[in-house]
Amino acid sequence: MDTQALEAARAVASRFIGYAARSRAEVVRRLERDEVAPEIIERVVGELEAQGWLDDAQFAQNWVADRADRKRYGRTRLAAELRNRGVEKEATEAALGEVTEEEELERARAAARPRWRFDAAEGADAGALPAEKRKIANYLQRRGFSWHIITQVLAELTENRE
User: Fold this and answer.
1) ∠ CA 75-24-36 to the nearest 5 degrees?
2) Is 80 helix (H, G, I), strand (E, B) or coil?
3) Looking at residue 55, what DSSP letter applies?
4) Which position among 12, 79, 90, 95 has the lowest Cβ density within 10 Å, counted as fewest Cβ atoms?
5) pTM listed for this prediction
6) Which residues have CB under 8 Å from 126's CB, separation 6+?
7) CA-to-CA distance for 2 and 91, rounded, in angstroms?
């Protein structure tokens, strides 16, 4: 094994994970982009995992915690993002398993409230309510919330307003 190529791959991988947390697959793709030999990639990735610098389970947990709170995303969107980053299904499910339905419902409420524009008390056209509900439902669906959560949020928003 070429020691110079190994050191160069270590440097590239270290810089890459130094900028932001990365999944194993992202590091592999980055090294492949530089046309690093597969055996060197496996060695470098193995070393990073052994040192604790690369851990997909921890990456998935941190990703879910950050994106769920900061971006107010639902389970479906978070799972898709982790899948796109190459995180294995088991790690994704474990990370998403820590999110309770009540937490997800509260995030959906927080995401929907600022966008809700219908106010019957101010004389809004009652015919505009279905369009407003559709708009909010589509928004929450794009953010990865389940239909069960979306219907709960819509029911709360429209309560005593119809």
Assistant:
1) 145
2) helix
3) -
4) 90
5) 0.85
6) 120, 162
7) 33
